[in-house]
Amino acid sequence: MVDDGTTGLETLFGSDEGLEGPDPAADVDSGMGGEGDPVQIGRFVILRRLGQGGMGVVYAAYDNELDRKLAIKLVRSASSRSTDKQLRTRVRREAQAMARLSHPNVVQVYEVGDFGPQVYVAMEFVTGPTLGVWTRARQQTQGSSWREILATYVDAGRGLAAAHAAGIVHRDFKPDNAIVGDDGRVRVLDFGIARGKPLAGAGEAGGERAEPEGPESLSVTDMALDATVAEQSLAAQSQPALGSSHKLSGSLDSARFAEMAPLHTPLTRTGAMVGTPAYMSPEKFEGRATDERSDQFSFAVALWEALYRQRPFPGDTTPTLMVAVLEGRLRAVPADSGVPSWVQAILLKALEREPDRRWPSMEAMLAALADDPIERRRLRLRRGLVAATTAIALLGSAWFAKVQYGDARLAETQERLAQQRKAEAQAERDRALAEAELNAQRTRDTLRVLAVESLEHDPTAAVALLREVEDPAQTRGWRGAAVDLLQQPISPTVIDAHHDRITWTEFSRDGRWLTSTSLDKHCWLWRLDDRGRPAGPAVSLDTGDSLISAVFSPDSRTLVTTDRRGWAFSWRLPATPTIDEALPERLPVIELRGHRDTIWSTRFSHDGRTLLTGSRDGTARIWTPPVDGTGPAVMEASRVLNAGSVIWWADYSHDDRRVAAGTVEGQVLIWTVDDEGPPLIVPGHRKLIQELSWSADDRWIASAGAEGQVRLIDVAAGTSRVIHVHDDRVHRVRFSPDGRALASASRDGTVALWRLDDQGELIEPPRILADHTGDVWTFDFAPDSRSLATGAQDSLVRIWSVAGGPPLVLPGHAADVFRVRFSADGHHLVSGGDDGRLRLWDASWSGLATDYRSPAQNNSSIVVDEAHAQFIVGGREGEISSFHLPTPDEPSLLEAGRSRPVLHSGPVSALAMHPKGWLASGADDTTVRLWPLDQPEAGPIHELPTPSRTVRDLKFDDRGEWLAAALGEQGEILLWSMAELADGRLAPMVVGIHGENGKSSGAFSVAFGPRRLASTGNDGRVVLWPLPGSSGELWEFEGHQGRATHLAYSDDHRRLAVVFSDHIMVWTLDEDGLPATEPVKLPHGTYLHGFVFDRSGRFLISAGADSQAYFWDLERPETSVRYPAATGEARAVRFIFDDRYFAVLSGDATVRLWPSQSSTQPASNEAMVLPVESQPIYLATAHDGRTLLVGSRGDPIRLLRLVDSFELDPLAARLRAATDYCLTVDERMRLLGELRGTAEEAARVCSERVDAPPLFRPGAHDHDHDRK
User: Fold this and answer.
1) Most exposed among 239, 698, 816, 1216, judged by the fewest C-beta atoms under 10 Å?
2) In the chain, which residues fall in CATH 2.130.10.10?
3) Is 392 helix (H, G, I), strand (E, B) or coil?
4) What is the DSSP string of 1190-1257?
């Protein structure tokens, strides 16, 4: 298809100048479109070639008998005789379909016939742009309205409706398959892939039998979104599908067009799968049967795209689009579209995932689109006036009749009829209003859930939006979004404090106050409640200029503010006011007068008696404010320290006996407070010093320089040395409160973090925290010195464990984060940025999803040790790492993995836990190692030699008496007695070998059962080996041509299941542990990755490469329920929450949570989708499935901590408790398309619902703080 054509058929098949020439013979003589083109087909003279596609060639032609121009489609011959006969039949069926559609909005077919071995179809010739080209032109034309676009598409819809009335389903409607003729009439064309409904007698026509329409399957690997495609379908699966299921059948050349199916033959007979992905319905993607409602869906997609200038579902590739369509994830409607909401409501109904929930027919949808409620109200008003006039006339007549004839009963009858009509009209209005309100509510709810996806950068706003959904039970995607959001860090309170950059924010020492300053010349002071949230409106401490800082005294009774003019003010705070006590509008204040330029640094002494300020005027000044806050309105400094150069930072030593200042000249000046003598001058930096920090013992001063150096000054010696060089300016340097760590932050996007030993000496080199993008403006140590918060240019706050590990990322700010500060008790964190917002955070960080990074970043296996609160990861470089396993309610900050001191010499391929606290590890070497789990830093206690390489599996028996191994190289099954290991006998027993007698060698899996060890191998055998000392006999299953891979017993050891590539065999066992019956075969059709039993052993879930998980009831194994894993393979499955749910790990980097068929709750066709890292390869669970661990190659290990319940009411309660934030008016207008008045009212209602106190006094906060 091309977009720049001007005629309908030319646009579709290629343009040709001069097509409209008056002389047909001249056209023929002037040359054909290509070599070998016919001159005449039947009675039709060929004018020229218009173009060609996968089916054949289209010509412009002339009918001399009827004197009209037309188009001829000449269908290519097939490569074989049998296929050619079928093709000819198909084309004739297409012509029959179109010939039945005699309608103004359908391209008319005139004739079908044979031209040698080929078939031709003669049809109406139409000039004009395609509907797609017409739409784009209208969208770019000033003054064009949505009504014009809607009316034109309604005409196209009438063509589809006519087709449906004739028993034809188009199956590929899109704007490029309709033409807006030069006569202004819209015509639908290209019914080449149409399918007709079976008609009476059709079974005998042409010797073919009509069958019910069958399902379809679709290959989507390389399909172009805008190309019509056709592909051979996969065999229909016999299992019933639950929810969205689709099959991937390999690559597809999107430029290749397959022939259409015969009109009355089902697709399962012809194998054709056709359509355009961008406009495909969910049932077509899933391979289900299609009907008129599929055309309705495609029509709605096209109309949505025309009205809103974007397609309704996100996705730039077919797989991503398919997932969005199957999950019902629509884009938010642009706020400036101008299209009324009633049109959107109609389209949303047509875009429902399930056909039964769409409009019953195209006619019904078109009728709804034609029923403009605004015009209807105008018409009702006009009719009302007429009715009123008529009523007056009737009343007059009745009065006359009553007077004339005295017939009272006539008046009673008329009154009764009027009341009846009035009641009926009111009932109809009430019903229509209720239906409209319900549809409007569903539309609002759908838009809210859809808009959540666009708020990935701000989970707090997403929670506020999700909290407004009025009917979560009926809103697709709400539950999954809630579960996902409740694992993310949420700001309990967000304050739109300023309309310019926040320069300072901090908590008071007693935790009762919060302040912020900004370049907008405002300083705010809030009193906090016991939860650390504002308890009432702020007090304004404005001074008339842009403020630099606001610093609390150690006793939390005084707040000093400074500004760019060099003014400083000391504000006296009320003494520990109660929550209910109103704060005064103005606080007592003392002006600290003396500086003549910007005050860059303000610090109280540690005893709170004096104040130190450093200024651009080249002085540092010591002040002694009155302790009780009383005194003169203006006071001067008690001492002036002249630096002779601009001071950027000044600070007291911890004993308050010395003062250090950094200058713009790069010098550090150190004064003794009680000594009037000159300062000690310590040179070193080449540029200005941004900040200084004293060590806890006052032996060292760390300095941050604009040239990128971090220096350490020996105070006693008066010397400095470089300890690190950043690539750019250093913004901040600070020792931790306990004196055991030092950090520096730089414009180069990194933080350098040192650990100090017991003597206060640096342990070099520093750890570099390099996850930031752009400047790291600020950081702060937590009071316990265990964590570090950073704020950066990338708008993110990050929380780092000082001990190591990846950061916890706190998104939400819309611009650079310039200030982060912990509360004195460490329970809260405040951040402020260039967006003017303050965000408060709960610093417990519990219940959040977190990432672990193993040292090698290339994981291969995992095992969970809940007894010691850890999990162990094996890497592809042979390393083994232990990580702390937090409980669901434990803080999320993670320490770095602790590597074992001895490594394997090959990839770690198997891990197993002994019941009494040992870890067995196997790798691609010739050694199995045993480690003590309770001693993470200890080396192996045993190194067990193996006769060959590649340990594929390791298992301990339930009592811990035996350790078994399966070797992949030679196929040995090994067994160690733990009692013999304790005696020092390390050699294993070789129980048996997989791969003897010329069969493929290599053992795959082992498992302990009653008195036996089960094993599988590449030779296709399943063997039950009797354990030493038992009286059991050997049992073997063989004869399978492929390999036997995974095996497992049910918890009660009554069943044994084994994977054979594309199916599972399940044996029911007797009391002796031997198969009691013939095995049950559970077919998959594709490669299997694994399976899991539930606790009862009755139910089994399997995961395969066909992107689906299969749920089997082993008491009724003839059927299964399929659960889609979206666009990726189903890699692993696990039961969770007492088997009431199960988790499916998908190759599309998601975990999908489904209600289990074995639970008493109703099954759902909607999964809760949780994103994880790319290329996930394994899934482990802990804490009864409330904790999920997802491992990926080359990516962090993702730890997901699920909520206590997936039920709607608990989830809604958790969302309400998470934050008191409400969307701003601007956010509502942008995200939901609300008008300002509606948005303002909704914001007011939200504020009342969350019951949060006002943050500002009326009129005090009059700047526009809605974020643009």
Assistant:
1) 1216
2) 912-1214
3) helix
4) EEETTSPEEEEE--S--SHHHHHHHHHHH------HHHHHHHH---HHHHHHHHHHHHHHHTPPPSS-
Residue type, 966: A
Cα-Cα-Cα-Cα torsion 344, 350, 353, 358, nearest 10 degrees, comes to 130
Q: Where are the CATH 1.10.510.10 domain residues in the chain?
A: 8-199+210-370
More confident residue, 217 or 1001: 1001
Reported as a pLDDT band with limits 50, 70 and 90, residue 322 is confident
pLDDT digit string (tens) for 75-104?
Answer: 776 544 444 665 677 667 667 667 767 889
Locate tokens 């608990």: which residue? 1210
φ and ψ at residue 973, rounded to 5 degrees: -110, 115
**Token digits of residue 210:** 């009509």
CA distance 996 to 966: 15
Residues 944 and 984: their CA atoms lie apart, in Å, by: 10
Q: Is the pLDDT of residue 711 over 60?
A: yes
Angle at 54 between CA 52 and CA 59, to 5 degrees: 25
Determine which helix (DSSP H) or strand (DSSP E) holds 548, and give its type and residue range: strand 547-552
User: On the CB side of 124, how many CA atoms lie within 13 Å of its CA?
Assistant: 21
Q: 1176: cis peptide before it, omega within 30°?
A: no
Cβ atoms of residues 1093 and 1104 within 8 Å: no
Length of the chain equals: 1268
Residue 1007 has pLDDT above 80, yes or no: yes
Residue 692 pairs in a beta bridge with 703
User: From the centroid of its chain, how far is CA 1259?
Assistant: 40
What span, in angstroms and rounded, lies between the C-alpha atoms of 482 and 441? 19
Residue 50 CA to residue 575 CA, distance in Å, equals 89
Cα angle 808-518-733, degrees, rounded to a multiple of 5: 50
Tokens of 351: 């875009």
**Where is 910: in which H helix or E strand?**
strand 908-913
CATH architecture of 912-1214: 7 Propeller (2.130)
Is the torsion defined by CA of 1144, 1150, 1153, 1154 positive or negative?
Answer: negative
Out of 255-269, 1186-1200, 1204-1218, which region has the weakest mean confidence (pLDDT)? 255-269
Mean pLDDT of the chain: 82
Question: Is there a contact between 803 and 797 (Cβ–Cβ < 8 Å)?
Answer: no
Q: Directed axis angle between helix 478-485 and helix 459-467, to 10°?
A: 140
Q: Determine contact, residues 522/542, Cβ cutoff 8 Å.
A: yes
Q: Above 70 in pLDDT, residue 254? A: no
Instruction: Confirm whether pTM is higher than 0.90.
Output: no
Choose between 1084 and 783: higher pLDDT: 783
- How many CA atoms lie within 13 Å of 1015's alpha carbon, on the beta-carbon side? 32
Tokens at 416, concatenated: 């009764």
Residue type, 765: P
Longest C-alpha distance within the chain, in Å?
126
Half-sphere exposure of 716 (CA within 13 A, CB side): 4
Residues 1138-1152: what's their mean pLDDT?
90
Q: pLDDT-based confidence at 902, cuts 50/70/90?
A: low
Amino acid making up residue 873: V
Residue 384 has pLDDT above 60, yes or no: no
Cα gap 1211→478, rounded to integer Å: 10
Order of all β-strands in the sheet with 880-884: 859-865, 870-875, 880-884, 898-899
> Residue 853 and residue 896: Cα distance in Å, rounded?
7
What contacts 805, CB < 8 A, 6 or more positions away? 852, 853, 893, 894, 895, 896, 897
Domain 8-199+210-370: CATH superfamily is: Transferase(Phosphotransferase) domain 1 (1.10.510.10)
* pLDDT attached to residue 26: 34
pLDDT digit string (tens) for 324-342?
888 788 998 887 888 998 8
Kindly state the tokens that stand for 163: 């087709």
Q: Is the pLDDT of residue 911 over 60?
A: yes
Rounded to whole angstroms, how far apart are CA atoms 651 and 644? Answer: 17
